[in-house]
From TrEMBL:
It is a multi-pass membrane protein. Residues 91-440 form the Citrate transporter-like domain. The lineage of its organism: Bacteria, Pseudomonadati, Pseudomonadota, Gammaproteobacteria, Methylococcales. Pfam families: CitMHS. It comes from Candidatus Methylobacter oryzae. Keywords: Antiport, Ion transport, Membrane, Sodium, Sodium transport, Transmembrane, Transmembrane helix, Transport. It is found in: Membrane. NCBIfam families: NhaD_1. This is Sodium:proton antiporter.
Length: 501
């Protein structure tokens, strides 16, 4: 009886004298809520409404939300055709869907405060992801600015490795780096190194680029620090940090199986490079130390203190900022003691962390904002609950998790994982491991299925001749080998952790 009375008080049926009725409605709500506060079972009427949103799957608002979602994703996935940033349609689409929901609830209830609470909840989840990726990319840009990765490229070139050796070295580096750096940034970094060391061999560039993409996705699946989907699982406490280690061997299998098949297609010739001397800027080694310290603090504070991951990351960013301040001030001081030469002027130009922050991939960050807010809207409309009922109740959860993983070959795995988490499925530890594995490595099946692949595609497009190097068609030709690695990793997971399903 309480909720209908409350709804009756806050509803507005008359179009005339709206301002007067609004004041009366506000006064009435105040006294009703004050009265309801005397009763412990009735004092949360507004929260009850917020907790039970209307089922709008078969309403015009729901149909509009689906139409906007499909259109936004279609435009984002065809970015290469129209050269429009993928973030634009996603941000606009999310804004339009939520606007429609707010308008509907304002007309139905006279207020949309409960909708605002849901919107802010999704925004909070995105804010943590935003800061986490921003800090991760800032460290990557800082190490790039200090010349660390350029020195790595020169070392690989000077060692006179064969193309086959470089194929495996770059793949293993991509796998290991993606344990602590977001796989999308690893794809861009390794793509740059492969492009430079293989500039005279387009076939090597294509195979090594594809291998790095598979390796980055596989390595990023082991660690919550290396992938968007794994970060979501960790953030929502579906799996603890140490539980991800169970995916180590399956992910190694996922990387090694297609790499072994591609190995025989890589020439065994040794490329000729001019000898170069790697030059590291002042403070580069200490930046690496701060980077390792930051991720160590993030993991240990989460495991032993239950501190959110972003708190440790922001602490590391603060340390990096103070170190940059010290480096800049000490370099200026040295100018008074040592006459400036061309060498010192090139290496002592200061270290501005904010330039590293400005260099993060804002298109990707805004894309994830749009994607996460769209998923949150579809969940509020009732579509995700219906999908969860079908996937995890009417069909086998194992089959459902494999199908979801296969679908990540064309839909971003971070978005899919966020959608699944919004379904709130009741899964065992083994099923969460399976879902994390299939979503993490399923994006390797097609070139449009993962952020590392999209980054490498964009890099190759501007620096390789048409039809050469790493392309969508080239990736598609090797898809059977990658699919074999996909199912081999699933079999390995069941063999090692079958008791947890």
């Amino acid at each position: 009886m309480v909720v209908p009375f409350y709804t009756l008080v806050i509803s507005s049926k008359a179009a005339k004298h709206r301002r007067v009725e609004q004041k009366c409605r506000n006064i009435g709500c105040f006294f009703v809520l004050a009265f309801l506060g005397l009763f412990p079972t009735a004092s949360f009427a507004e929260e009850i409404i917020a907790a039970t949103p209307l089922d709008l799957k078969n309403h015009f608002v729901g149909y509009l939300g689906i139409a906007i979602t499909v259109l936004a994703y279609a435009i984002a996935m065809t970015e290469d055709l129209h050269q429009m940033s993928k973030a634009k349609p996603m941000v606009l689409g999310s804004a339009l869907i939520w606007l429609a929901i707010f308008v509907f609830y304002s007309g139905e209830y006279g207020t949309a405060k409960n909708v605002a609470a849901v919107f802010q909840s999704n925004l909070t989840a995105y804010a943590e992801l935003f800061l986490f990726i921003t800090v991760s990319m800032t460290f990557l840009n800082a190490m790039t600015e200090r010349g660390i990765f350029d020195a790595l490229r020169i070392v690989l070139a000077n060692r006179q490795y064969s193309y086959r050796q470089l194929f495996w070295i770059t793949g293993v580096l991509a796998f290991l780096l993606s344990l602590v750096i977001s796989s999308l940034t690893v794809g861009l970094l390794m793509g740059y190194i492969i492009l430079v060391i293989g500039k005279n061999n387009p076939k090597f560039v294509g195979l090594a680029g594809l291998n790095a993409v598979v390796a980055a996705n596989a390595g990023g699946t082991i660690s919550p620090l290396g992938g968007i989907s794994t970060f979501f699982v960790w953030q929502q406490n579906a799996l603890h940090f140490t539980q991800f280690f169970a995916l180590t061997i399956p992910c190694i299998v996922n990387f090694v199986v297609p790499a072994t098949i591609m190995h025989f297609a890589v020439t065994n010739e040794t490329p000729a490079f001019a000898k170069e001397t790697p030059v590291l800027k002042r403070g580069s080694k200490r930046v690496i130390f701060i980077f390792i310290l930051t991720f160590s603090m993030t993991v240990l504070s989460n495991v032993f203190l239950d501190m959110p991951a972003i708190a440790g990351m922001m602490l590391g960013l603060a340390i990096l900022q103070f170190f940059a301040y010290y480096l800049t001030k000490s370099e200026k001081m040295s100018h008074f003691l040592i006459p400036e030469t061309q060498e010192t002027s090139d290496s002592n130009k200061g270290f501005d962390v904010f330039k590293c922050i400005a260099g993060v991939d804002w298109d990707t960050l805004l894309f994830f904002y749009g994607a996460m807010m769209i998923v949150g809207a579809l969940s509020f409309l009732g579509y995700l609950d219906a999908m969860a009922h079908y996937l995890f109740t009417e069909i086998n959860p194992t089959l459902a998790n494999i199908l979801i993983g296969l679908s990540s070959s064309s839909i971003d795995n971070g978005t899919l994982m966020f959608a699944v988490l919004n379904m709130h499925p009741s899964l065992s530890t083994g099923q969460w491991l399976l879902l994390t594995l299939t979503l993490g490595v399923g994006g390797s099946l097609l070139a449009i299925g993962s952020a590392p692949a999209l980054h490498v595609l964009g890099l190759m497009k501007g620096n390789m001749e048409e039809g050469e190097g790493y392309t969508f068609t080239m990736h598609l030709r090797w898809m059977p080998a990658i699919l074999l690695g996909f199912f081999a990793s699933i079999v390995t997971l069941f063999f090692i952790n079958g008791g947890q399903f």
